[in-house]
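Example 3.2
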Amino acid sequence: MLKNFENWLLQNNYKPTTAADYMGRIERLCRNEQFTLAHLVENISVILPEYEKNGKKHSYGKRSHYSVLNALKRFQTFLVESKLV
């Protein structure tokens, strides 16, 4: 699924470096939080706000100029457009 996400980003005119970075950030987030990609997919609407401003994990979400948060937002958009959520 992450490769499909990367391809979706490329199709939506993201630079190859950004697409690969966002895919990696989603992968690392799952590993760091110790949940599966399936868990993230099923719970994205609950998990994403935790990384936004005023969320309890905001400091992680704003890393690298908000790349973690932006990757999560794009992943959610990918899931919706792909009708996976």
